[in-house]
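A sample copied in:

***
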Amino acid sequence: MDSNYVNPHYELRQKEFRTQAISRNAVVFLGNSITARGNWAQLLPGVPVANRGIGGDITHGVLARLDSILAAKPSKIFLLIGINDLSRRFPEAVILQNYERLVRRVKQQSPKTRLYVQSVLPLRDEMLKPDYLKGLNPAVTSLNTQLQTFTKKHKLTYINLHPVFADANGQLKKEYSLDGIHVTDGAYPVWVQYLKEKKYL
C-alpha cells in the first residue's frame, strides 16, 4: 500500500501556504483538488477564508500538514478528503484511522475550532478516463456511511453533500461534472449556498 503523499505539486503548494498566513478565526477549506479548485474567498466576501486544498492529496497528506493549520486557531474547518485514498485502494479502516488521528489533533491543538466532515463526492463513471477511478461509487457510499457514524461518535457535524451533487443513480450530476471526478466552477456557488442554508456558514 502506497501511503506516500509527497510529490512536486504537494511541495509547491506547501511552499505557497507558508507565504499565505491563515487569519485567526478563519474558515479553512481543507482537502484535495476538489477543495483546491474552489474560489472560496470570492464566494464568501467579508469572511476570512483559507483554501488548503492540494490536488491528489490523501488523508496521510492532510495529517502531515495539519499542525500549521491548527496553529492559526481557525474558527471552522470544512474537511473533504478520501477519494484519492479510495482510488489507491486503501482499506476503509486505514482511512477511518487517519480521520481518528485528525480529529484527536484538532481537539488537542485547537479545541475551539469547529470541524465539519463533508461527505466524499460521488463520481460519474461515463466521464472518467482513468480506469482506476471507475466503479468506485460503492466504496464512496460505504465510506460516507462510516463517516456519518464516525461523526456521531465524536459529536461532530457531518455534511451530507449527496443531495447537492448526486443524481438519482448515485452518480455525480452531469451538469456539475467536469471529468467525472472534479466539479465545474458553477458547482461551487451551489455548494456554498447549501452550506449557508444548513447554517454551517
Q: What stands out?
A: DSSP finds ten helices and five strands in the chain.
